[in-house]
Automatic annotation (TrEMBL):
<dbReference type="GO" id="GO:0016757">
    <property type="term" value="F:glycosyltransferase activity"/>
</dbReference>
<protein>
    <submittedName>
        <fullName>Glycosyl transferase</fullName>
    </submittedName>
</protein>
<keyword id="KW-0808">Transferase</keyword>
<dbReference type="InterPro" id="IPR001296">
    <property type="entry name" value="Glyco_trans_1"/>
</dbReference>
<feature type="domain" description="Glycosyl transferase family 1">
    <location>
        <begin position="229"/>
        <end position="341"/>
    </location>
</feature>
<dbReference type="Pfam" id="PF00534">
    <property type="entry name" value="Glycos_transf_1"/>
</dbReference>
Length: 394
């Protein structure tokens, strides 16, 4: 089925709010939509800035994409400089928005701005779990917009014990507003099932499942460090849900391998931070690496370890599988849906099995039995297939 060109309004609030930071999985999805929609139909961008709303036309959206890709932001303008408490990189990004936008307004004028500039009946797309407010929805209904919302996961409701204070309530409000959309796009059948379960008491909009595409990163020169082969990589924000504690518990008994923790420190994880601050032997914390450096480390590793308690999609293991890197993962349904029999699965309650498999993977690496030689061939999902599914309905 051909994709019909049409006007679309993409919410870019999340990408701008995180200017200057390494991209998360959610950020990557928003960026992929920005890149793809610029080539299909007429694209507009909406951003909720610290001083109100900003509207971009297609030229502005392309300029924003280029700035995000290059990390190249202009100087903060006077408005950003007088806004107290604004992160410096976000101040520069919001200043650039004001330079390239076609319109901006205070929150109370959002409806009027959209009516003045946008075509009635266009499609609004929100992929960032951000800025889906009553004000925005009301303004969109005022121009008869069709609303499409991307649902990455329902983790805050599924494992509330691993969330920051206030996250569960905010996510519940977000999900209730998302239920007023015309279409909900899920990244997996598992997320689609979870969504139906949490919204069982109310009318569920049309839903579709469209696996995320993967942009393979060409490895760069691996960063130097005090580690030696064999080493393992775990990737992601150091937060309770990612379960770094399990790996730290195990590593004292794995004397012949190193552990590289690639990710920034998150929240509500003081016990793990204190253990890392004590510099346990053969454990190395590596925040702030770019995608090419991470890919290089993965390519030389004995495997990726991912003991996360819950995932909406689990993009790092998918990326590692595409590189032919052996995987040891918690036994989660989403991994089996996306990766099938490629990883080794071990329940995180079975520490003996984790120790046994890590030791085996280290021995395989020392013997030269690594990467594609031992991992089944994996064909990752593509963005082309994702958008072929989504854009026929948006």
């Amino acid at each position: 089925m051909a994709i019909t060109p049409r006007d679309r309004l993409l919410d870019l609030t999340r990408l701008v709010s995180r200017a200057g930071r390494p991209m998360t999985g959610v950020d990557r999805v928003e960026f992929a939509y920005l890149t793809h929609l610029l080539q299909h139909g007429r694209l507009w961008g909406l951003v909720r800035s610290s001083l109100g709303y900003v509207l971009l036309d297609a030229t502005g959206c392309a300029a924003l994409r280029d700035r995000i890709a290059a990390g190249n932001w202009g100087e903060a303008d006077r408005l950003s400089r007088i806004k107290r408490g604004l992160d410096p990189m976000r101040a520069r990004a919001e200043s650039d928005l004001r330079r390239i936008c076609v319109a901006r307004c205070l929150p109370l004028r959002l409806s009027a701005m959209l009516r003045r500039h946008l075509t009635r009946g266009l499609t609004y797309v929100n992929t960032g779990h951000t800025n889906l407010t009553d004000r925005v929805l009301s303004a969109l209904r005022g121009i008869d917009a069709r609303v499409t919302v991307f649902i990455h996961d329902t983790i805050p409701l599924d494992v509330p014990q691993y969330q920051r204070p206030g996250t569960v309530g905010r996510f519940r409000h977000f999900l209730n507003r998302a239920a007023r959309a015309d279409l909900l796009v899920c990244n997996s059948r598992q997320t689609e099932r979870d969504l139906a379960r949490h919204l069982a008491a109310q009318r569920l909009p049309q839903t579709i499942s469209a696996p995320l595409g993967l942009d393979l990163t060409e490895p760069a020169q691996a960063p130097d460090g005090p580690w030696t082969a064999p080493y393992f990589v775990t990737l992601g924000t150091i937060e309770p849900r990612k379960n770094h504690a399990l790996l730290l518990d195990l590593w004292d008994d794995i004397p012949d391998a190193h552990l590289l923790i690639c990710g920034s420190r998150g929240w509500e994880n003081q016990a793990v931070f204190e253990r890392l601050d004590a510099h346990p032997p053969r454990v190395h914390e590596l925040p702030g690496l770019d995608d090419r450096q991470v890919a290089a480390l993965l390519a030389g590793s004995a495997g990726m370890l991912f003991p996360s308690f819950a995932e909406g999609y689990g993009l790092p293991p998918v990326e590692a599988a595409a590189l032919g890197v052996p995987l040891l993962l918690n036994n989660l349904p989403i991994y089996r849906e996306v990766l099938g029999d490629i990883p080794v699965y071990a329940d995180v309650a079975d520490t003996y099995l984790w120790h046994k498999e890590i030791s085996r993977m280290a021995a395989d690496h020392r013997a030269g039995r690594t990467r594609a030689e031992q991992a089944p061939r994996f064909a990752p999902p593509t963005w082309e297939a994702h958008f072929k599914t989504v854009l026929t309905l948006t």
